[in-house]
Amino acid sequence: MEFRAINTVPLEWAGDALAVGLFENALELTGDLAQLDSRLQGTLSELIAEKKFIGDVGSSAVTRVGSGSPVRKIIIVGLGKQDKLKLDVLRRAAAIAARIAKKEKCQTLALSLPIWNNLPENTVQALVEGVELSLHQDNRFKSSPEDQEVSLQQVDLLGLVGQEEAIARAKVICSGVILARELVAAPANSCTPVTMAQTAQEIAAAHGLLLEILEREDCEKLGMGAFLGVAQASDIPPKFIHLTYRPEGTPRRKLAIVGKGLTFDSGGLNIKVAGSGVETMKTDMGGAGATLGAAKAIGQLKPDVEVHFISAVTENMISGRAMRPGDILTASNGKTIEVNNTDAEGRLTLADALVFTEKLGVDAVVDLATLTGACIIALGDDIGGMWSTDDELANQITQAAEGAGEKFWRMPLEEKYFEGLKSPIADMKNTGPRAGGSITAALFLKQFVKETPWAHLDIAGPVSTDKENGYNNVGATGYPVRTLVNWVLG
Ligand code: BES
Ligand code: MG
Ligand code: ZN
Predict the structure, then answer these.
(1) Which of 211, 232, 265, 419 has minimal Cβ neighbours within 10 Å of its Cβ?
(2) Which ligand 1 atom sits nearest the alpha carbon of residue 430?
(3) Segment 64-85, tens digit of pLDDT
(4) Is the CB of 265 under 6 A from ligand 1?
């Protein structure tokens, strides 16, 4: 897809579809739009009246323009109230326009926004993201893809000249989001610990990152008993992935991103029963997928920040070698864990990943994980949970997520609930009571971070969606790559 930010006014643009953004209750056409409307013999005002269009967020309408006109279709998209305009409204509006243009078999699309001299910072980036992400379709596993005919090829952003850098930045970020989506969407017989390591290798080679892969024996030497306990029943070797992006010169900060990487979670001997969503557990490497997606984007954006991308990747399987309920594992910081539920495996893999990460001496660590069903119960499908030992880091994440249009809600690290993880025989159990299950999971992780500012993001809900939603299509969302990139750049 080619994007151009050009100074053409709507009236002078020629192409397949012209999409006009309109604020709620500000539908009186003035200036350029009034001229356009009269040139189109009132098509625009008729469309508004006929569809009872009021410009609320998410609304849209489309009509054909009579032959002889330089444009074939006119699309109107609601932007809501002007004083409530957020970047994500623009991202979604661009997605709506792109989806309509695609459906109407348009090859060229122009986006025209009101108040173009007074738009939020990063508007162009958000528009490009909205278009790219809404049009991304994963046809890798179809023998004959449905939509191969005409496709959108060029998008012009009218009145937004000189924004080449923002366009390039958006495309790079989308390449990371799309990588994360494709890793999450790939089934567990296609995306394995071995292929995840290969993907890390490709990113390292393409964008000049350092790559270290720890094999099972290397992890044994480091005493990663928690990670290896989870990995021990799988026939596919575990891979501990550590990618490093180092800027030229002295880095302004050193950060780490740690992703849960279960390419499949059967539950282990506490096997997931029918109805538990076991058939969706290929998405249980969503944290690692987003970590690699962020690495791909950061490797191209080249900020003045050192970033470590870490994931302990394995499957959680069953066999004669499987970890048993009740087994006691020793993590690489020496702490012992009574595994009272083999399905609480993500926290075991993250325990050793966090201990490894803290030894790197970074300024802050963020982990992301499809960690608990309890977090979905608490916050639903669209909002991730955030826990942090550090208010400043929590605020940085909140801000980064706001700009990204990805939602997180800060949850409490309620120390008293750690009582639920007390074990009579080991230092702790890996599972507490049902109530507050996402909080005890976070408290478990906290045992493996000593003093580095740390935030934990539970992305079990938003990692995928079962309905088309804004610029997200059904399936993997690539959440929260954009938040991570904003955080690193911020
Ligand atoms: N991968 C799951 C969490 C999950 C559930 C993600 C649903 C996405 C959708 C995790 O490993 C798990 O099984 N968690 C258990 C923990 C329980 C045994 C304490 C859960 O949430 O039921
Ligand atoms: Mg599990
Ligand atoms: Zn899991």
Answers:
(1) 419
(2) 19
(3) 998 789 999 999 999 999 999 9
(4) yes
Task: Report the CATH number that the domain containing residue 60 is assigned in CATH.
Answer: 3.40.220.10
Is the pTM here over 0.85, yes or no?
Answer: yes
Which token pair is 478? 């690539």
Same domain, 150 and 235: no
Give Cβ neighbours of residue 311 (< 8 Å, ≥ 6 apart): 196, 240, 241, 258, 259, 260, 261, 285, 287, 288, 291, 292, 353
Compute the distance between CA of residue 188 and CA of residue 117 in angstroms, rounded to an integer: 48
* pLDDT per position as a tens digit, 316-360: 999 999 999 999 999 999 999 999 999 999 999 999 999 999 999
The answer to whether residues 117 and 247 belong to one domain is no
Q: Is the CB of 433 under 6 A from ligand 1?
A: no
Same-domain pairing of 10 and 129: yes
Query: Does 181 qualify as catalytic in the annotation?
Result: no
Catalytic entry in 171, 272, 335, 410: 272
In the listed set 121, 142, 162, which residue is the last one of a domain according to the structure? Answer: 162
Task: Compute the distance between CA of residue 442 and CA of residue 430 in angstroms, rounded to an integer.
Answer: 11
Q: Is 359 a catalytic residue?
A: no
3-state helix/strand/coil string of 136-162: CCCCCCCCCCCCCCCCCCEEEEECCCC
